[in-house]
Each structure stands twice: as C-alpha cells, then as structure tokens.
DNA sequence: TATGAATGAGAGTTCATTCAT
DNA sequence: GATGAATGAACTCTCATTCAT
C-alpha cells in the first residue's frame, strides 16, 4: 500500500510474519485450531519455535491475529462495496460480486472466518469473536439499511423485515460459496450476481 | 420401536449408553470437542472412565456416535416431513416447520450438527462428516425434486435451478434458527413457515 | 499415629505420596527448587509423570506440601519442647536439645526450612513463606516469653530485650547446626545444651 | 586502585561492567537467580544481549562475578576492621559496627551474600561458594584469634571455644541485620555495638 | 464385569546462548 | 566491536487410553 518507507529490516520482518501467518492459516484451516501445534507451524514455516514466539506471544495471539486481520480486510472490502453504486439494487449486486471475489481469493481463511462468524466456534477465547461479530453485524446493518431504503423508495417490495432480508442475502451468497468450496468446477460461484439476487428478489423488485 | 425382545440386561445397557451420549452432547455442545475430556464425560455421567471405554472405543468414536445417531433422527424426521402433504408448497411448509420444531427441541445437538454440515467441522476424522453429508445431500435432493415438481406443475416460477432453490430454502431456515439460537426471545423462529418461504417464494409462486 | 483404620488402598496411596515427597525433598534440598524438574522427581521416585500430577496439582503445590508439612512437624515438636520443664532454663535446654535432635533427623529438609525461614528464599510463591514464618515467629515469641518470665522471676539478668534474646538463642543453635551440617564428625552438635546456652547465658543467669 | 594507567577505552569498559553488575545485583536480589533472565539484565542495563555476553561468558559467570567481587569488598573491609584498635573488645566493637555499616550500604547484595554463606545457595555451580566460604572462614578465624588472645590476656572469660564464640558473634550480628532488613524502622541495627556484644559478652568480659 | 490408578506422548512456552551483520 | 534476531533444548502440565484388580 503506502510508499516504500520501510527499512530493509522492517520489510524482512513483515515478510517473515506473512510467511508464518500464511502457513498458520493453511494449517488451521485444514486441521482446526486444536489439531495444529505451534511446533508444526514453526516447522512448516521453517522457523525455530522461539522465532514464532517472537512474533506472536502465544498460540491464541497467533490465531487472533489471523482472524482479526483477515476479517478487517473482508469487512472493509465489503463495506466499500456497499457504498458504491447509486441504486440499491446495484449496491446489492456489488456486495454479492465482491464477496464472491474476496472469498474466492482467500479460500483457506474463509473456513476460519465462517467458523468465527457463524459456525460453532467455541470461542478460542471469548471476546475474540465479539469484535469480529460486531464488524459482521455492522455489515448486516448496512445491508439492512439498503433494503430499507429500497423499500421506502418503492424500488423493493416489502416482503419481509429488512434485517431478515439482509441476513438472507448474506446467507444465500454463503450457500453458493460453500457449494463452490466443495466442488469449484461443478459449482462455480455465479458470475452474474443476479443469479443469487433473483432467488431473493425475483419477487422483491417492484416491476416498473 | 423395534420388537420388544431386548433382555433386561440389554435394556439397561442401552439406557446407560443413552445417558453417556446425553451428557457428552451437552458438554461438547457447550465447550467444543477439544475442551471436553473423557474424564469429564465419565464423571458427569457418573460412570467410571473404563466403563465409558467399554461403550465407545475412543473419544472420536463417541463423538461420531453422537453426530451420526442424532443426524439420523433429524434426517429421518425431515424426510418424513417432506413426504407429507399433497401440494409442493405444503411439503415445503412442513419442512420449514418440522425443521424448526426438531431443532428447537434439540438445542444442544444442533450446534454440533451445524458444525459438521457447514462450518468449522475440522473432520474430527475425515469420513465422519462424509456419511452425514450424504444424508444431508439426500434431504437437499428431495427438496430439489419438490421444487422441480412444483415448477413442472406450474405451481412455482422457474426463478432458479431447483437444486439451488433447495439449498437456499435450507439456508434461509438455518439463518432463522441461528437468530433464534443467539437470542430466542428477541428473534423467535417464525410460527408461520411462510415468513421464511416468502423470502424465497414471494416471487416464486405463480399467482393463480 | 492413630489406629490402623486406613484401607489397604489408602495406605498404599499414603506410601506412594511419602515416596514422592521423600524423593522431592532430597532433590530440592540438594539442587534447589529451580534445578529440579518434575520429570526428574517422577523418574527418581519411579512413577510416571502423570501419577506425580495426580498427587500434587503442580510443582509449587508439591513444594508447598513439603515445606508446610515438615514445618508443621518442626514447629509442633519445638512448641512442645518449650512447654516441658518448670524452670525457664530447663525449657531453654529442652529447646536447644530437641531442635538439634529433630533437625539432625531431617537433614535434607532443614536446608529447605532454613531457606524459607531465614535465607533468601525468593518466595516460590509469596504467601507460602508467610504461613511458615508466622509459625516460626510464634516459636520466637514463645521463647521471648520464657526469657521475660525468667527475668521477672530474677532467674535471668536483664541483659537484653527478651525478643532479641529469643532470636539470639535460635540463631546460636542454628550456627551449631550449620557447623554440624558441614562437617558432622568434626563439629558435632553439642550433647549438652549448656554448651550453647552458656554463650548466651553465662552472664545471663543470676548466680544464686 | 592500581596505578592510573587505564586508557579511556579501558575506563569506559570498566564503567560498563559496573553498570551491568549493578543492574544484575538489584535484579537477582529482588527476584532470585532463576527469576531473572539475561535479556532482562541486558535490557535494564541498556545494553544489547550480545554485549552482556562479551563481558560475562554466561549467566553463571555473571552471578559468580557479583558474588565474588562483592564478597571481596566485604571481607577486605571486615578484615581491616578487625585489625584496628588495640584492645580485643575494641576490635570486636569495630567488627560489629563496620559490618552493620557495610551491609546497610549494600542492602541488595547482602541477600545474595547471605544466601551464599549460609542459607539456600544451591551452589549455582559447586565451587562458586567454595572461594567465598574460604574468605568467610578467614574472617571467622581472625575473630577466633581475637577471642583467643582476649582470653589469654584474661580480658575475656573462657566461656566457650574461641571458634564457637567467633561464629556466635557473627551469627548474632546477622540476626540483627535480618531484623533490620525485614523492618528497618521497627528494628534498627543498633548504633552501639555493645547491644550485640552484651548478649554474648555480658558474662564474657572479665570485670576489672 | 466394572473400575479407576497409572501411564507417557505430546502440547504450549521460555530463555540461555550464538553468530551473521 | 556491538548488535539483537534466531535458535532449540528443556520445562511444566494435560489427557486419551490401558489393564490389573
């Protein structure tokens, strides 16, 4: 992002950190938090165990770093997607499309993300989840407002509570992402966001 | 259910097994697989640890038993719900209603079920999930056939691939179950299945 | 002590506990708390590490058990010694003699005891020491009262504050115990307690 | 001390060494050998860890340096105190007074010193102690000779073996130093050395 | 047959020490 | 010469599993 104002040392450090995180994401994603040891992560990342602990003060901190950093990226990207476009329907299309893109670019991390936002994540430590869920809730609220605005502007029918509609749209896009995740070739995430929106909106949009 | 030919001994054994499973479900559901020890389960169920191992050959086997047996009950119940009613729309209504009922009666187990079918089931051992997913897939296929039939009978608009519609309906009901799970009073699971079906079907059903 | 009302199981357990404590005392005494690992203790006591942790919930608990249990025995024995005899000088003689006997019977443990009551024990955990030091202080107070009584009865000269005299007597007996500890044959702890008492009391006792 | 032939470089080095030692003394004294890391020492002394290792080949060497150098100062000071004064009683008074002064000026170091000469020095490595104990033994011998001379000159009564008297005097002054250490205001180390000497000598000195 | 004491592999974490820069 | 990032042996502690009683 920014200029190149980091010293060689700092750049090197950042790269090491990224390497460790990348390995950890892969392992956690494939095996689950409790089935991955710090030694395993260190080994796969080709660092000594002590080095790993120089970067992350403990296992939970490493996990927390993954989740919060990745969630930040997702949430920011999605928030921005929801702000672009004038028409409500365009914002929704953006959301579906961008969500697909960003998740498909981060396959490994989404399992962890899903686990934290939806699944039975047994709060590796209570509170971790809280922050993320609040961000997630923020997105849903944003979506809900878009639905509400659309309804008020008579663009959408008032077929359900806007908050429910928001959750539903998110849920539907997740469904397609799951499908794709399990068999990417057989079930590609739709290029056209209307494929997903139609399921929700075919009866939603007020025909002009 | 089956005949009545179980000896007193066998009945006693079965009851012990049920007791163990019930305790394990509660513990796993509240704490997660890795945060529950075999000792804890034995203790809470008031059996010796050795006795627990007489019934389940190891921790994974115990977990697998819970998941598969409970999933069987769910799937059977849901399958039956999909067979009742003549009109396709009634079958769907049944599904949404029965699913809500059965899940709300088994709060503890659904977290585990969700974890296995969707989110962060890190395959306690690969293959566990497979069996359940196949059952789950069966339900979805059944649902898909109902949608397809409805479309062919011109009861439903062909707004999307029937398989996608099936997944979507299931996903929407899950969404409402999650909501209820997190705040039962604030977000009751709708009494009227149309609340959920409308989101999907408002534009789906062909107005007569 | 009491009858034999312990079951075979309980007796066995007690014996195991004693074995573990005995090994731990020896190791801690010779090497210091931080230079002895739980594995080492388990190994020397010929138990699995897990068994050791069945008896003591952690390393500190094991150490605490040693110190408090042994200190209890010492303090009780010394307290009783101070209560026997009519004349103050006899009580002091008793103290010096019994202290020598009890310490010489528990060579290993006294290093640990000294470390906790006097030496620079860096409070394996603050508070451990507190309890023991209070017991120790109790002994000193008892001694001080004896000196005070002796002075009031004109048996002793008032050559110093009774509390200081109490500490001094204790300190002098420690000095002889140290000497004996380092070279038992060359520096036997005096059979005759007056050898020690004279250093303090030659000018203390009022000649009749 | 020696000539003045140290180069600026050498003087600088010496000062750095002193700084490191001073920090280490404080930390070891407050926390104990095993609860202080080399990193902590380096950090507090504001040197790089590598620099610390340039001055001391390992942690033990650093500790050994503290103990031996400080002990040297103490022993030299005490030895000189024992050489001043004509009368034996004055030498003893000097000893008690100077020992109090030097210890009270070096509070931090005396805990370590006590640990090494008496209590729970668990031979950070056997042999460390040896050197110090020999020095200490030297002091005690010197004291013993003073007692012996006093006895021969009929200044002191022969109430006990001179060596025992020497140890006893040292022990008594330690007792008062402990007291002061734990509660400086409540238990000041006596200004008048006779407060301590009387406990030992009230009956020792032959009244003229 | 049911029991639960005993086991020990393996987890997370620390820190003395080294050595390339 | 000074630095401090990197190392990995060793520590404390847990818990799934076994087997003699």
Give a description of the structure.
The structure is a homotetramer of 208-residue chains. With 208 residues, the first copy, chain A, is mainly alpha-helical. The first copy, chain A, has two domains: 6-56, Homeodomain-like (Arc Repressor Mutant, subunit A, Orthogonal Bundle), CATH 1.10.10; 64-201, Orthogonal Bundle (Tetracycline Repressor, domain 2). Chain A is 70% helix and 0% strand. The first copy, chain A, contains nine helices and no strands. The first copy, chain A, has helices at residues 8-31, 38-45, 49-55, 59-83, 88-104, 107-117, 128-152, 162-182, 194-201. In chain A, helix 1 packs across helix 2 and helix 7 (128-152) crosses helix 8 (162-182). The mean pLDDT of chain A is 85. Chains in contact: A-B, C-D. Chains A and B meet through helix 6, helix 8 and helix 9 of A and helix 6, helix 8 and helix 9 of B. Chain C binds a DNA duplex (21 and 21 nucleotides) through residues 13, 37-39, 47-51, 53-54, 57-59.
Low-confidence stretches of chain A: none
How is the main sheet of chain A built?
none
In CATH, the topology of the largest domain in chain A is named Tetracycline Repressor, domain 2
Instruction: Give the H and E element order of chain A.
Output: HHHHHHHHH
Q: CATH homologous superfamily of the largest domain in chain A, by name?
A: Tetracycline Repressor, domain 2
Q: Could you tell me how far the N terminus lies from the C terminus of chain A, measured between alpha carbons in angstroms?
A: 44 Å
CATH architecture of the largest domain in chain A: Orthogonal Bundle
Strand content of chain A: under 5%
Question: Quaternary arrangement of the chains shown?
Answer: homotetramer
Find the structural class of chain A using helix and strand composition.
mainly alpha
Kindly state the percentage of residues in helix of chain A: over 70%
| Level-1 CATH class name of the largest domain in chain A | Mainly Alpha
């Amino acid at each position: 992002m920014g200029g190149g104002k980091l010293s060689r040392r700092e750049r090197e450090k950042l790269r090491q950190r990224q390497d460790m995180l990348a390995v950890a994401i892969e392992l956690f994603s494939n095996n689950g938090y409790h089935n991955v040891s710090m030694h395993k992560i260190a080994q796969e990342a080709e660092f000594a165990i002590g080095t790993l602990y120089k970067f992350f003060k403990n296992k939970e901190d490493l996990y927390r770093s993954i989740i919060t950093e990745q969630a930040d990226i997702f949430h920011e990207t999605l928030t921005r997607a929801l702000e672009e476009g004038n028409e409500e329907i365009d914002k929704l299309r953006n959301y579906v499309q961008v969500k697909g893109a960003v998740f498909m670019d981060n396959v490994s991390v989404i399992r962890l993300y899903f686990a934290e936002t939806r699944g039975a994540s047994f709060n590796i430590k209570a509170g971790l989840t809280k922050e993320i869920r609040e961000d997630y809730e923020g997105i849903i609220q944003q979506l809900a407002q878009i639905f509400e605005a659309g309804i008020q502007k008579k663009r959408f029918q008032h077929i359900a509570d806007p908050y429910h509609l928001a959750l539903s749209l998110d849920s539907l896009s997740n469904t397609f992402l799951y499908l794709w995740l399990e068999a990417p070739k057989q079930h590609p995430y739709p290029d056209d966001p209307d494929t997903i929106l139609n399921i929700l909106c075919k009866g939603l949009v007020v025909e002009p």
